[in-house]
Amino acid sequence: MTTTAAPARPRAGGPHRAPARWASRWPAWRAFVLLTLPMVAGLLLFKYVAIGWGLLLSFNDARGTISLGSWNGLENYRRLLGDPAFTRSLVTILVFTVFIVPVTFALALGLAVLVNRLRGGRAFFRTTFFIPAAVSYVVGALVWKMSLFSGTPSGVANSLAYLLGYEDSIGWVATVDPPLYWIVLVTVRLWLQTGFYMILFLAGIQQIPAQLYEAARVDGAHTEWQLFRHITWPMLRNTSVAVTLLLIINAFQAFDEFYNILASNLSGLGGADGRTPLIYLFQTALGEQNYGAGSAGAFVVTALIVVFTLLQGRFAGFGRTAEEEGR
Amino acid sequence: MRKRHPGSYAAAIVFAVPFLLPFYLLIRNALMTRRELGSLDWHWWPEEISFQGFADAFGNEAVPLAHALWNSALIATISAPLSTLLASMAGYALARIPVAASRPVFFFIIATMMVPGAATFIPTFVVVGSMGGVNTMWGLIVPGLFSAFAVLLFRGFYLRFPRELEDAGRVDGLGFLGLYARLALPNSGALFASLGILSFIEHWNAFLWPLVIGQDPDYWTVQVALSTNLNQQAVNLPALFAGALVAILPLVALFLIAQRWIVRGVLLTGIKG
């Protein structure tokens, strides 16, 4: 075995101290293969094969089957983009992203600055803001739908509204015009995810050298706002870019809270069509068993996410050069 | 630089209230009777604490909550250490074993990070389904074991691993596998714990994949069971909240006990992600 199963490449040619002879290279190869094989095989099967198969399926009329053979070209893509329910789901997720990303960003940054200013009790407040990250989106949706924003008079939001003089109880999830259900959807994700990003900002803030603030004070920056504007904010640039990126990617893949809060609206019949692209794809693939269209949709959504992240990277990149040139 | 800011404390308390409110609601609602929770008036606290909600939650035969909790526990306790171990093995090999295939394998692995996970659930479902993975434990667990990102983090960690330690091990006659198992792995406990805990949280809270794969009630996870309860026609509210409270308890406890590791993991995964 040791002599016959020689690896195919004779010379590594790299900077490693590579003994030229096979016999001494063999243990390294064996160890390398043993250690990487599970990961490589797993990714090959569940990513590469899956994506390749999905891509081929998206060019097939694959209803009730996951085998190839009934090629129909771009028909799935054409039908998908021509389906108002799918394009509406794209609009839904765009609107949702436009809302949730800046709001979470601002709240997470604000809470990080706030927690950083505390001396005693900092751990308590940090834990308080962070601990919702332990809760699943299903449980968050459950509390929001059935207690916080429930349509009964004893719901928290309705009890507050009553105190403020609104006698009638409001059906928060069911009200489409004005779109009150958006308040429910945005606030639940806000509660669930803000703490995670606050932790990122907090770490970024704590890495800023204190001398920078002292220097800024010498230069005449006195108010908290000036210090934030001229020191904290520019020093958090990398963190801000990472946070925005993560927020966009996560918002685009929203599924859990829409599925659980808007269950009755998911048929696309009554009230608002609360379907996100992932819910639409879920219904197409799992409900109608149309795996061709479902795969096509998966690639459309993936492409959108990639385009969005690249765009964001571009803007962030331009921001940096402008800032550096400005100094 | 830091002074006392009484205003900051006031603001912190104002923000803390809505962040804690949902936890309070979970506890209050779980301890109420159906009649009291269904009444039209606001009650700060149950008149009489009732555990009927818990009994109802676990006694519902249509939604086997105890079994779902068991499934979730099984999935998370298998997935978290195993996925972290697989990532650490690959990360070590890529960082420390000088073979020509190292670079292509590295790119093969990190290229998968370009594709966002949730959007590919249909292609993955097609593969797992064709292998007979629907309504199986392995179908729920195995596809979630391979994290290219964790490989990247472990590779970075092992690249900084002190060479002297390895040299000493080599003198003692250890090969690459021995160096990994005896020296590298035991010395990566902090990273292992951080990523392992995050992986546990992720698997416990996962919803979309278990919903797709575990269609039979025998394979429901706790999240799928709660979602089923939530979307029933006549919801037993105290039971619903009791179930949710039980479902979040393990992770809330984990957050309180192991927050240091979790924060470390978040920083590792967040900044580079």
TrEMBL record, chain A:
Instruction: Please state what the protein is called.
Output: Sugar ABC transporter permease
Asked if the keyword Membrane belongs to this entry, the reply reads yes
Membrane topology, as annotated: Multi-pass membrane protein
Q: What is its main location?
A: membrane
Keywords, A to Z?
Cell membrane, Membrane, Transmembrane, Transmembrane helix, Transport
Q: What is the lineage of its organism?
A: Bacteria, Bacillati, Actinomycetota, Actinomycetes, Streptosporangiales
Tell me the Gene3D superfamilies matching this sequence: MetI-like
Q: Give GO BP annotations, semicolon-separated.
A: transmembrane transport
The family annotation for this protein states:
Belongs to the binding-protein-dependent transport system permease family.
ABC transmembrane type-1 domain sequence ranges: 90-312
Compartments reported by the entry: Cell membrane
Q: Which domain of life is it from?
A: Bacteria
Task: Say yes or no: keyword Cytoplasm present.
Answer: no
Gene Ontology CC terms, in alphabetical order:
plasma membrane
What species is given as this protein's source?
Nonomuraea deserti
Q: Where are the transmembrane segments?
A: 31-51, 90-116, 123-144, 180-203, 235-255, 291-311
From TrEMBL, chain B:
Keyword annotations: Cell membrane, Membrane, Transmembrane, Transmembrane helix, Transport
Where mainly located?
A: membrane
Task: Tell me which GO cellular component terms the UniProt record holds.
Answer: plasma membrane
- Membrane-topology annotation of the record: Multi-pass membrane protein
GO biological process entries: transmembrane transport
Q: Does the keyword Transmembrane helix apply?
A: yes
Question: How is this protein named in the record?
Answer: Carbohydrate ABC transporter permease
Q: Which organism is it from?
A: Nonomuraea deserti
